[in-house]
Amino acid sequence: MVAISVLLDIKNLQTHFISKNETVKAVDGIELSVKKGETVAIVGESGSGKSMTALSILQLVPGPTGQIVGGEVKFIDKDLLQLSDSDMRRIRGNDISMIFQEPMTSLNPVLTIGEQITEVLRYHLKMGKNEATERAIELLKAVGFSRAEEIIKDYPHRLSGGMRQRVMIAMAMSCNPKLLIADEPTTALDVTIQAQILEIMKDLSNEFDTSILLITHDLGVVSEVADKVIVMYAGQVFEDAPVDTLFDEPLHPYTQGLLDSIPKIEGKIERLSSIRGNVPLPEEMPKGCRFAPRCPKAFDRCFAESPDLIQHESGHRVRCFLYDEGGEE
């Protein structure tokens, strides 16, 4: 079998929010990779740093306080953190596209759907107006609009949430990007529409050989579409494994807690499992392991030292003293 080339390779990414009084480490030493044609999911509770990681890749961190202060984001043969603003504008929407969490706030309310899709095509692919319109209709049909010729004349407020999300996917895929970043693409959609959106994303990925970096808190979504899973907590990677391996044998207590909290349809369950407490605020990180105050398996070392992300014999990467040499109680 021929090895699949790495499309995106992130090493020690650090994104901080810096003010006069404090420095908040929103993304603290993230390392992950995405291969060509692969779907990688980043999971974790709200506040884990998932979305900020995505914004850091595209250099869209909100300023002036937000700054990428270290690391490397290598896309094919370029370190994106070293590129100029003009070079990054050519990459965004062309080689790397992003579907944002709320399509209503991402679409321009005063432009028609057709105007917004053709704008992308004319800027990146230098298409003429008629050619761009024809391509926009093809894209809308590809994401499930049977009357695409009418939809391109509509404004965003006339569409449902699921329809707007499909428009966002059409826009994101318009230039056949090498990497699609999808930030909670099925949030606030009902289960039937969620399934349709995920199916569209899988089909388009297969058709165009597009890699996907999927950001979500929904492990049910992950099990359906991902090849690999990155579990984030408090700005760090806590576990990294192939999707089947992670679901069959989660190593980190945090991952185990996330999986245990998924409702089961078989058997009688009196009460849903949950992880006690909340993700710490970035400015209030505990000493030692950041999950220790919530962890049912924490011991003294966990409250005193910060564990490294290590390679486990199972194939996982995991940040936990339970798997470090001599780390168990």
Number of helices: 12
The shape, in one word, is globular
Number of E-type strands: 12
Which strand order spans the largest sheet, edge to edge or round the barrel?
6-7-8-3-9-10-12-11
- Fraction of residues in β-strands: 15-25%
Give the helix proportion (percent range).
25-40%
Largest sheet entry: 8 strands, mixed
* Straight-line N-to-C gap: 42 Å
Structural class: alpha/beta
Low-confidence stretches: none
Compute the CA-based radius of gyration. 21 Å
Average pLDDT, rounded to a whole number, is: 89
Order of helices and strands: EEEHEEHEHHHHHEHEHEEHHHEE
Explain what you see.
This protein is an alpha/beta fold and 329 residues long. The protein has 12 helices and 12 strands. It has helices at residues 50-57, 85-91, 103-106, 113-124, 129-142, 148-151, 161-172, 191-208, 219-225, 243-248, 253-260, 300-304; strands spanning 6-18, 23-35, 39-43, 66-75, 78-79, 96-99, 179-183, 211-216, 228-233, 236-242, 310-311, 317-318. Strand 9 and strand 10 (236-242) form a beta hairpin. It is globular and about 65 Å long. The N and C termini lie far apart (42 Å).
Topology:
Layout: E1 6-18, E2 23-35, E3 39-43, H1 50-57, E4 66-75, E5 78-79, H2 85-91, E6 96-99, H3 103-106, H4 113-124, H5 129-142, H6 148-151, H7 161-172, E7 179-183, H8 191-208, E8 211-216, H9 219-225, E9 228-233, E10 236-242, H10 243-248, H11 253-260, H12 300-304, E11 310-311, E12 317-318
Parallel strand pairs: 3-8, 3-9, 6-7, 7-8
Antiparallel strand pairs: 1-2, 1-4, 4-5, 9-10, 10-12, 11-12
Helix pairs in contact: 4-5, 5-7, 7-8
